[in-house]
């Protein structure tokens, strides 16, 4: 597991429980950018969700700290029932004020490094259909549409796959 990795003046490391509020706040800011009518209020307690993700023994939450500020995060694990050599990227966010600064690229590289260390061969994710910026980012990183999981006609997400072994 990545404990800490330094890239330039950035630190990439495992998130700690005391950062759950900052993680949830970054998640909210990033999600707000691809919901034109506002983030759906479905009753989810995102602070509790992030606390659980950070504390989950079989999961990983990586964060990017730049000049003492949390500016990026990624959450991943092998879902129940999935092959052990696969991993799902559940959340991947960069502070909108820091887009196009290289944070997403170094965070993605750290994820791939961790996936390789953990013996994962394939990664999957789903991305909101209106989040074209994220779709373009993932394509640049080598993600492709998941042939095993095509979207339904009225689905709001696209399913992507990444080959860890060939990255």
Written description of the protein model:
The protein is of the alpha+beta class and 167 residues long. The chain has helices at 20-31, 46-55, 103-117, 132-141; strands at residues 4-7, 10-14, 59-66, 69-77, 86-94, 122-128, 144-145, 157-163. It has an eight-stranded mixed beta sheet, sandwiched between helices. A hairpin with an 8-residue loop joins β4 (69-77) and β5.
What's the quick description here?
The chain is built from 4 helices and 8 strands. The chain has 167 residues and is an alpha+beta fold.
List keywords for this structure.
167 residues; alpha+beta; 4 helices; 28% helix; globular
Number of helices: 4
Order of helices and strands: EEHHEEEHEHEE
- The quaternary organization reads as single chain
Q: What can be said about the biggest beta sheet?
A: 8 strands, mixed
In the predicted model, the low-confidence regions spanning at least 5 consecutive residues are: none
Give the termini separation. Answer: 19 Å
Portion in strands: 25-35%
Give the overall shape: globular
Kindly state the mean pLDDT as a whole number? 89
> In which order are the strands of the major sheet placed?
1-2-3-4-5-6-8-7
Rounded to an integer in angstroms, the radius of gyration calculated over CA atoms is: 15 Å
Structural class based on helices, strands and sheet pairing: alpha+beta
The amount of helix comes to: 25-40%
Secondary-structure map:
Blueprint: E1 4-7, E2 10-14, H1 20-31, H2 46-55, E3 59-66, E4 69-77, E5 86-94, H3 103-117, E6 122-128, H4 132-141, E7 144-145, E8 157-163
Parallel strand pairs: 5-6
Antiparallel strand pairs: 1-2, 2-3, 3-4, 4-5, 6-8, 7-8
